[in-house]
């Protein structure tokens, strides 16, 4: 049984913290304190990111010196280099970071390689490594992958290929026998931020290469690469704290001015004003189109879009990504429709296990997210789509750790499992897929939590009159928002509903109009707002409601509108 989400307003800021933060307005002091910031110096650093001050020396990262020396030797001796990046919106932009560096220094004996999600899978691929050896490759640099690929790296060593791993995933007990591993999660690493994304690590690598190399590069040129590092930092949902906050902050600034034809064409295709890109735009509009390439087609198309200097090529690729992203949305909708039909016709169980050999593997996680939200049960969705093994994605409703659940079944059921408490993935043979549901349901009864209480802290209470641009500008100082730095959330009590309107093609988006004391309309918006989304399911014009919401700036048709994004109606 899952206990309904409860809300709690954070306590008042203590006097000593209020005095320490006296230079700031009351709301800013409260938001700083709620984020664990109690001193003025710490507050100044947080509210005013500085590139030179806040990004640490890249050589603090373990093995950076060794990795840099190896690349510089490869450049000096004109060795063939392959940059092997993951196929998502971390590995692809990170690969562009290294691509742009080698292009900038005039080095031509390199190529970028992005593996195919379905035919090659995640990480280094043995057949690809052997192909590189036949092509005379001497140095392989990974981006956002490689930290678990012991066999592939060892095979590269046998074939005369040195490997430099740049990654950010957890380091296992056995590490690959690479020439150098740059991963801030290594135990001996002394860099200050272990939570960098893959492109963030690649950016630090380029910083180090420029610092040591004798290149004719203008000072500060690498800042132009922050559009890619910032894009990935936001898209990969790493904590936006420490160096990640700085990379995301400046990444958005560079994105708003980026001369990349591919980015400009992509933004034009989705009718987005480049000068107003926000972290929400990255997460909900840009990243899904980059990821659509690997989910629905070839990830190299997304790489070429971001790396090309050719406006015509960029236009074609942007149009293609927009098209396949629309196909992705349609395919997901059809999959969800099919899942709902299957569930309607079968006996309900405590865990939803559903699949079809024809379902696209790359979009299973999206479907699983939708189903777990609607049915409030753990969900396992699988597909095959011509692959050797069946692959699946799973999501938890909070009643169980899905990785713990998968590892508690018969040891020979799964070929592979991975993930974390609420989200995971698995592979299983076609011969054993018929066992999956019974085994998972049986294990769930042993592992489930009898009750789960989720308490959401609210930053404070505000009056509807305080939904104004002055308050918004205070809140905006805390951007960019994301994991580890959530948008400030407020409780608005007893506000009168003036108008209720459902809009959109499926009439599934909600707009509620309120009036402030001056009679001015203040709107609250909630997307995909079915009746199960809110604690209060019935409200109409003339009712008084309490709402939990965040401030939201809309730039629809390039006109700024301040509104509320409704989280819950109480």
List the helices and strands and how they pair.
Layout: E1 6-9, H1 15-20, H2 26-34, H3 40-47, H4 51-54, H5 64-76, E2 80-85, H6 91-104, E3 110-113, H7 126-134, E4 137-143, H8 150-158, E5 162-166, E6 180-182, H9 198-212, H10 226-235, H11 242-255, H12 261-269, H13 279-296, H14 300-307, H15 311-345, E7 352-356, H16 364-375, E8 379-383, E9 390-395, H17 402-407, E10 416-419, E11 423-428, H18 436-447, E12 455-458, E13 460-461, H19 469-476, E14 490-496, E15 499-503, E16 509-515, E17 521-526, E18 544-554, E19 561-569
Parallel strand pairs: 1-12, 2-3, 2-4, 4-5, 5-6, 7-8, 13-14, 17-19
Antiparallel strand pairs: 8-9, 9-11, 10-11, 14-18, 15-16, 16-17, 18-19
Helix pairs in contact: 5-9, 6-9, 6-10, 6-14, 7-8, 9-10, 10-11, 10-13, 12-14, 12-15, 13-14, 13-15, 14-15, 15-16
Task: Give descriptors for this structure.
single chain; 570 residues; alpha/beta; OB fold (Dihydrolipoamide Acetyltransferase, E2P); inorganic pyrophosphatase (n-terminal core); Diaminopimelate Epimerase, Chain A, domain 1; seven-stranded mixed beta sheet; five-stranded parallel beta sheet; 19 helices; RecJ_OB
Quick gist of this model?
By secondary structure, the chain is an alpha/beta fold. Helix content is 38%, strand content 19%.
